[in-house]
Amino acid sequence: MLKKYKLVIKTILAILVAAIFVNTALAQPSQMPMLERTSQPVGHYEFCQRYQSECQPNLPAVVPTLTEDLWSQLIEVNGSVNTVIIPRTDEEIFGVAERWAYPTKQGDCEDFALLKQYMLQRAGVPRSALLITVLRQRNGAGHAVLTVRTSEGDFVLDNLDERILPWNETDYLYLKRQSELDSGKWIGIADDRDILVGSVR
């Protein structure tokens, strides 16, 4: 009887994932409009000093096709990291204002993004499509997420939201992200949407 219930639950979950995937695939693709190369966040620079292999050129840059399988991977990784890692500031964990690191039990926003990037890359998603992105929230506070580039647009994996949304359906002001050509370099984002964010707009 228990096996039967597990099978029913698995079937329902598969149907839900498929329905979300179909809805997403039918939406108008939207990529973040990019600017020129810009400054690398200090925390990421220090991270690259410790993990040099994670900050190398990604040539050639590859944009993966958004398949049902990839969508399922995104949902699984986003949900598992958001559930397992306890949100804590760098001040609480390390006693410093900013330190980018792979979390094991606790971390702040960029740590969540780094772990999601690591897990998806190990699952076979091209590194050039997995980009740490820095932004401002509506209250003006800084925040970091993982942007996943796909054939159907750029999607955001966020530790503050269980949903995986197209970047332009979020209410953040996007500032810059890793270059798809080189994980150690950063590119500005021309986010000209009418978003009221703190004192920025």
From TrEMBL:
Residues 1-27 form the signal peptide. It holds the Pfam family Peptidase_C93. The keyword Signal applies. Keywords: Signal. InterPro entries: Transglutaminase-like_Cys_pept (IPR010319). Gene3D superfamilies: 3.10.620.30. The keyword Signal applies. This is Transglutaminase.
